[in-house]
Backbone:
C-alpha cells in the first residue's frame, strides 16, 4: 500500500503538521548532494546530471563501500510508471561503465579531485578497481508512488533486480519546512540483491552456502573470532545489515579481504548487537563479549548507536586457518559485503575448490 507520513507536534493536545511541497524537486536533488545522509549514511555521491548519451541524464550517481554504483532518479514531473521504466533504461548504461568512465564522471562532478583519494577519505579504505561496478542498485526518489509501480518494484527486487523507492514528504512547521522519508523496501534486501550477481555475470541457482567478509584490522581480530566462534561487522548499517541474512544452521565461507579464505562453519543463530552478545571466557564463564574481547576495538565507541554498533553472529567452526595460511587463488570469488548469497559461476568454482582445501568443512 502507498506510504504515507504524518508528523505531530508534541503537547497535551498533539497537533498534526500540515503537509507542504518543495518549491521545485530540483531543491531535493541539491539537498541530497549537500547531505547524502538523506539517502544513506554509507553512500558517496560521485555524479550529478550524468549524460548517458542516448536516454537522457541520470539525476545522481553514488558509490557504496564495496564499489556498487547507485543510480538515483527523482520522479520530477514523470508518472510513476514512466520513472520506473526510465530508471531501468538508465541502468543498462550504468551496468556498462568501466573504471575509467566512473573516474571521469567524478572528475566532472568534483573538478580537480581524485576519486581514489575521495573514496579513501570517505570509507577509510582503498578503492579496488576490480570491484568497482561489479553490481549496481536503482533508487527512485518520489513523493508518491501508485500501487502498480509498487508491485513492479517489489517483483523486480524479488528477482534480484536491486531497485528500491525512497518516498519523501514535506511538512510545514514553525521552524520552516521539514522533510521526512521512508523506504518502500528494506534497504538491506536491496543491498543483498545487488551483491547476489555482478553486472556481467551469468546467473546460476544459489547453492545455499553463504559468503562472508571478515574485516581484519583495527576494528576486529580474526584470531579472536577463531577462538571464540563468531563473525561480526559494524560502523554502519551497510556493513552490519547483511548479517541478517544468516540463521541457525547456515553454512558460511569466510574470507578476510587482503588475505583470503580463512574459515568455514555454521551459524548458531542470527545477528546480536555487541552489548547483548555473550561469550565463554577462558575459564568457562559466560561474560559479555565486550569484556572478553581485547584484540581489537569492535567499534566500542558506537556501542550506544543502533546504526553503527558492532553486530555479531555466533559460528560453530568446522575448520579455520590463521591469516598466514589463508587460501587466495586466482579466479576465486570476492565481495566486500559482509554477507551475500552469490549466484555466479565464480562462486560455484570457489566453493568447489574450497571443499578440496578445507577437508573438514562438512563436520
Residues:
Amino acid at each position: 500500500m502507498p506510504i504515507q507520513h504524518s508528523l505531530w507536534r508534541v503537547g497535551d493536545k498533539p497537533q498534526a503538521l500540515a503537509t507542504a511541497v518543495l518549491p521545485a524537486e530540483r531543491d531535493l536533488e541539491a539537498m541530497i548532494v549537500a547531505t547524502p545522509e538523506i539517502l544513506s549514511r554509507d553512500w558517496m555521491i560521485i555524479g550529478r546530471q550524468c549524460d548517458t548519451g542516448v536516454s537522457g541524464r541520470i539525476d545522481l550517481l553514488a558509490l557504496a563501500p564495496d564499489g556498487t554504483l547507485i543510480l538515483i532518479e527523482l520522479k520530477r514531473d514523470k508518472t510513476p510508471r514512466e520513472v520506473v521504466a526510465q530508471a531501468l533504461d538508465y541502468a543498462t548504461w550504468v551496468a556498462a561503465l568501466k573504471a575509467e568512465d566512473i573516474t571521469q564522471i567524478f572528475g566532472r562532478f568534483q573538478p580537480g579531485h581524485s576519486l581514489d583519494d575521495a573514496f579513501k577519505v570517505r570509507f577509510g579504505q582503498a578503492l579496488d578497481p576490480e570491484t568497482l561496478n561489479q553490481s549496481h542498485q536503482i533508487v527512485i526518489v518520489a513523493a508518491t508512488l501508485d500501487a502498480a509501480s509498487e508491485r513492479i518494484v517489489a517483483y523486480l527486487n524479488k528477482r534480484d533486480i536491486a531497485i528500491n523507492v525512497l518516498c519523501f514528504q514535506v511538512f510545514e512547521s514553525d521552524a520552516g519546512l521539514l522533510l521526512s522519508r521512508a523506504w518502500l523496501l528494506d534497504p538491506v534486501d536491496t543491498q543483498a540483491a545487488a551483491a547476489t550477481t555482478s553486472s556481467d555475470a551469468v546467473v546460476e541457482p544459489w547453492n545455499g552456502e553463504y559468503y562472508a567478509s571478515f574485516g581484519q584490522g583495527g576494528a576486529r581480530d580474526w584470531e579472536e573470532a577463531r577462538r571464540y566462534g563468531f563473525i561480526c561487522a559494524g560502523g554502519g548499517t551497510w556493513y552490519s545489515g547483511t548479517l541478517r541474512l544468516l540463521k541457525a544452521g547456515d553454512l558460511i565461507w569466510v574470507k578476510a579481504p587482503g588475505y583470503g579464505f580463512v574459515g568455514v562453519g555454521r551459524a548458531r543463530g542470527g545477528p546480536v548487537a555487541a552489548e547483548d552478545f555473550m561469550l565463554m571466557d577462558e575459564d568457562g564463564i559466560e561474560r559479555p563479549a565486550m569484556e572478553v574481547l581485547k584484540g581489537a576495538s569492535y567499534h566500542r565507541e558506537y556501542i550506544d548507536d543502533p546504526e553503527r554498533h558492532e553486530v555479531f553472529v555466533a559460528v560453530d567452526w568446522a575448520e579455520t586457518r590463521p591469516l598466514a595460511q589463508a587460501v587466495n587463488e586466482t579466479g576465486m570469488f570476492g565481495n566486500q559485503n559482509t554477507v551475500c548469497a552469490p549466484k555466479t559461476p565464480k562462486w560455484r568454482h570457489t566453493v568447489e575448490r574450497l571443499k578440496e582445501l578445507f577437508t573438514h568443512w562438512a563436520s
Q: What stands out?
A: The mean pLDDT is 89. Residues 80-95 form the longest helix (16 residues). Residues 92 and 293 are 46 Å apart (CA to CA).
